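Hey, quick one: can you model this chain's 3D structure?
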Amino acid sequence: PPIKASRNVAAMWAAWADYYGAVVPSGAHKTAAAIGPAFEAFAVGMVVGIGTLFLTVALCTSVSFRHPNVVDVICLVAVCSFAFCTLTQRKGLWRLPIGLNGLLAIVNGMLLGSHCYSSYGYFAQIYAKSRIYPNVDPYQRAASVADGGRLVFAPEANVGVDKAAGYLADDGVMYCAAPILGIDEPRRVEFWAVGLDCCQPSGNFTCGAALDKHARGGAVVFGGPGARGGGPLTSLLVALSHGGTATAREEDAVERAKFEPARRKAEEAMGLVAKGPDEPVLVRWVRVGGLQTLSRDYTLQEGAFILLCTFVYACLSTPIAWLTGRRASMFFKRREDVYINGGISWDAPRWG
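Sure thing. Here's the predicted structure for all 352 residues.
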């Protein structure tokens, strides 16, 4: 009869609901229980790794100029802390992801921080702190502005683009030098505008704003920070590249020496009566407005570099963070099973 059939269908639906209502949530719970600890450890490892890299690069770049020893101590303490977490990984679910991802991040952070400081951070600081000299006469003694970082030349100053010279070095780079002149013919040249791959072997100097008639600013050429600052690995990198330690003044001398053949060549071609100074001032010719924003421009490049490094590291470190999280969760899952099978209820500690 229809009534009996409807009762059978209702009973069948009730039985199905009772069974699958219990089985499906149980299966989902087991799946979540298996994935949950691994994802939790993975998330912790990712956050620690990304945060450590960002902070390390920022610390090495921004603080090294004034407090290099403080940066070295902080980095070394962090390395020891992450190494301790890795060695004691069996004492907590989070220790292996924190330790391994933290170590990977801080080592890469120190390498990238050293490069960022040498390329951007040091110059942002040195141009911001160094003295600016206004109304510089191109024929005054270079030693009178020896502590300057930004020079604003007198209105009559100009770059002798046709009296420039280029020297092709062994590294394939054309080093260019052009005299900064005044109204009268010079007896000696104290200031030189320089650049890379922006001139011919003789004349045609187009470096920076040399062709801009309104430009009369000079950003003094600095070599770099040497072995001081940039994190604990800077000294090692400088030793490997230079065969020993180097100071900022030695780096300046090395940078000036690269342009010396071109400068001497231009000096001889001009037939100057008096020999130039042993340490002439080399500048990059820019507009005066460019001098005002020079430090800010380097700071912006520094920030862009740090953000780019952090993004790339986050992408590349994701598999490592997942593997460490998965390995840690599997170890503690097996350990938990041993405790449960032995009749002891045990829950893995997250930190220790």
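One thing worth noting: The helical segments are 2-62, 68-87, 95-129, 233-242, 248-270, 288-292, 294-341.
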